[in-house]
Amino acid sequence: MKYPTFTCETELIQEGYARIGGIDEAGRGAWAGPLVSACVVLPHDFALRGWGVNDSKKLSPKKREEISAVIKERTLDFGIGRVSPEEIFSLGLSRANRLAMERAVAALLKSPDYLLIDAFFIKANVPMKIFIKGDAVIASIAAASIIAKVERDRIMRELAPAYPQYYFEKHKGYGTKLHQECLKNYGICAIHRKSYRPIRQIMKETIS
To answer: How far apart are the C-alpha atoms of 101 and 58, rounded to whole Å?
Structure first.
């Protein structure tokens, strides 16, 4: 398995940057629930430790949980940002995505001095570099993707008992066959993203 590397962070450390934050999100494609982002500042000796960090999509749920706990315990700093379905509806997906990332940076104990971000520029008073599919190549972004994914899965499991007919603990709000069947049978609920096309279509069918 090919792992993300700490090369970019190492080069920035050699240039004098001390706190390099990697940022990624989870839940962008889900039809329900919040969008969650994380910012992770890895220690300078990360490359010597490894920790099994990889793109969260390449890890099993159990492995993500294990590695997330290791990251939180050993990293210099991490922050988590959340955006609600209501905010996604009012802001639009791209702005909501940026807001979740900005909230993750704001949640750090101490401000970073450089940011490595998956896909989006955000409002921040520090230099930043953007990577497409950064979680596959940049270690700190991959670490952020793991924390964001584990946190969002936890939120969806906690929300599930309030909406038992939707089985959010199983599909986490994504457009799986099970979720589609639930929507056909019960319509939408309060945590569905009303700006998403499949949800809008169901709302339209319900009205008609």
So the answer is: 22
